[in-house]
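Hi R.,

Here's the chain you asked about this morning:
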Amino acid sequence: MDSAKLLQSGKVTFRKMTLDDIPDIMVIELESFTLPWSEEAFRSEMTLNHFARYLVMEYEGKPIGYAGMWTVLDEAHVTNIAVRTAYRGHHLGECLFRKMMDWAVQLGMRRMTLEVRVTNYSAQAMYRKLGFHSVGTRKGYYSDNDEDALIMWCELPERELEEGEEEGSEEDWI
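And here is the predicted structure, written out as tokens:
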């Protein structure tokens, strides 16, 4: 089933991450990364880092993906994004990323940045499709194999405020 059909089915939903999600997020993390974050890292992000925002993508009420960003001034820095192995190949990662970009706009962010492995061509293609462009590299960024990271940026669309609404409001963003 493609992402459009999954999304139209109403079985794929998005919401803010909670501490209760961490065990499920760890499964996704371990499937996805050679240098996975620890449970404590996620707990610290959610309880101590007031810049951190995390989003969960669920299928039939079960987390199948997540994405995180730090929002500082008017910039969003993507920290991580991952989808369960069984759900890859259906453009769900792109849907999740678009939802996070929408959230960043809702929060008043004007641009977004991320690092991606120089060999992760599929992720780079998705980011370019979403308006990102390469601005440089971080040498030896990934400590598991000393691989370089490509630094990418995009300008986010302007957000029109509703009457009486303040910029940076998180109300009803999903």
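One quick note: Helices lie at 3-8, 22-32, 39-48, 92-106, 121-129.

Cheers,
M.
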